[in-house]
Write a structure and sequence with these properties.
The chain is mainly α. The protein has 8 helices and 2 strands. A two-stranded antiparallel sheet has the order 1-2.
Amino acid sequence: MMLRRMNLPLLIAQILLLVLGLVGVAAGAPEEALDHGLKAVVALIITVLVAQFRPKAFMQLGIWVWLSSLVMLVLVLFIGVGTAESTGTRRWLDFGGPFRFQPSEIAKLGLVLQLASFFARRGVYKKLVSASLMILITTLLILVEPDLGTAVLTFALGVVVMYSAGVRITNIAAFLMFLTMISLPFISIYLERNPYIQERIFGHTERAEVLEQA
C-alpha cells in the first residue's frame, strides 16, 4: 500500500544516487560514512512518506514553500555563515547543533513547485512575465550569497519547468538572449568581487600552478 503511489524508476534512481554518494563519501572521508549513510536512509523514508500525498497537495503548498524560501534567502544575507573553505560567503543558516541548512536547497524545490502550480492555475502564456520574474528573483538571491553553481542550477530548473509546461522554445530562447544582454555589464564586476570563481575556472587549465583552488 505504501508503495502504490510511488514511481518505481524514480525510486530506483534515487537509491542509486544515494549509494553512489555514500561510496564517494566513504572513499573521501571514511569517518563520515556512517553519518552520511544514516542521513541517506532518513531521506529514503521521507521519500516514501511524501510520495503518499496527491499532486494537488503539492500544488497548494507551492506558493508557501517558495515564499518561505525567499524569506530564508534574504535572511541568510544578514545572519548566514560560510564554511571553513569559503569564509567570505553567506550560504548557511546555522541555529546550532543539527539545525544547519542551506536555504538555496529549499529554494530549488520551492521554485519548481510554485512554477508548476502557477502554470497549472494561470495557463502558460497569460502570465509568462510573472513566471520569468519568479525565476530571476530566486536566482539573484542565490547569486549574491554568492553561490554561482547553485544559482545556475536553480535557473536551469526554472527553464526546464517552463519548457515542460509548454512554453515555446522560441520564447525561452528570446528570454535567455534578453537576460544575457542585460547581464553582460555586470559579469566582470561579479567576477572581480568573487575571485574564487576565476580560480576554479583557471584551476582546470593551469593545474600545476593552482592545484589547490582547482
